[in-house]
Amino acid sequence: MAFKPGFDQSPAFNDSGRNAWGAGAGQQQAGWGQTPQQAQGGMTPEQLQYMYDRPSASTVDTDRMSYEDTIVKTLLAFGVLVVGAVAGWNLPPIVWIVAALVGFVLAMVNTFKKKPSPALVLTYAFFEGLFVGGISAYYQAAFGGIVPQAVFGTLGVFGITLALFASGKVRATPKATRFFLVAIVGYMVFQLVNLVLMWTGVTSGTFGIMSAPSFLFGIPWGVVIGIFVVIMAAYSLVLDFDQIKTGVQRGAPRIYAWTAAFGLIVTLVWLYLEILRMLAIIASSSRN
């Protein structure tokens, strides 16, 4: 998972509460005791009526982030991801392995780039799609039927998390976020150690340490760890939703909707791959 820059650091705002053009919120309102015509600079009744009859300002007019615009950009990035996945499904392994490396590099570039680039976000989505499609085809060939389960599982977790966040029952808190950061670093270290053990032949299972049966009713460690990681990915979605809410409420520039779209794509891919691997571990253990 890549860490995304926060909207509270947007150049459109500073600590004094003024916007990027130096005007405070109070300076944009009419003074007390003015008539509507005085407040509007002496407009005629016809001019006032024309102004009131105009539709509400759109995202393009205000150049500010909105939920609708963020949804559109996220769906566009997701569509590019799906196109890449369809292509990756039918390409040889070397292609999606290279795509995984390219996707990682692009993820780092998008993460640390100060101003989001739509082209880079969509390019990342395509290469990540190639990798997701290729590895899904591999798992499907080895453990038939688990890819649809992983897709529906990912959509289910996303839907439940979004519903809980929208209802206010789940929120991002500083304490939970600190725990999340510590847990994700620990998980990355664990995966690195597991990979080294697999390469050196210390572990013989398909998934290394995660293939080993645990002491709890013979459930593989990979399933136990996988459930914990899925919970972490769900909390990452909460952080993404919270970041979008913050950006809209603070009037972040419209371009930062691409940051939100990038963050959601990263988290959804991570969630999908973890569910896919957990299902593969279950299928592998059932054969033994």
From TrEMBL:
Top-rank taxon of the source lineage equals: Bacteria
Any Pfam family from its record, for instance, is BaxI_1
| InterPro entries, A to Z | BaxI_1-like (IPR010539)
UniProt keyword annotations, A-Z? Membrane, Transmembrane, Transmembrane helix
Keyword 4Fe-4S (UniProt):
no
TM region positions: 70-88, 94-112, 119-140, 146-167, 179-202, 214-235, 255-273
Region annotated Disordered, chain positions: 1-41
Composition-biased stretches (Low complexity): 20-41
Question: What PANTHER family does its record include?
Answer: CONSERVED TRANSMEMBRANE PROTEIN-RELATED (PTHR41282:SF1)
Query: What is the protein name for this chain?
Result: Bax inhibitor-1/YccA family protein
Q: Which organism is it from?
A: Curtobacterium pusillum
- Organism placement in taxonomy: Bacteria, Bacillati, Actinomycetota, Actinomycetes, Micrococcales
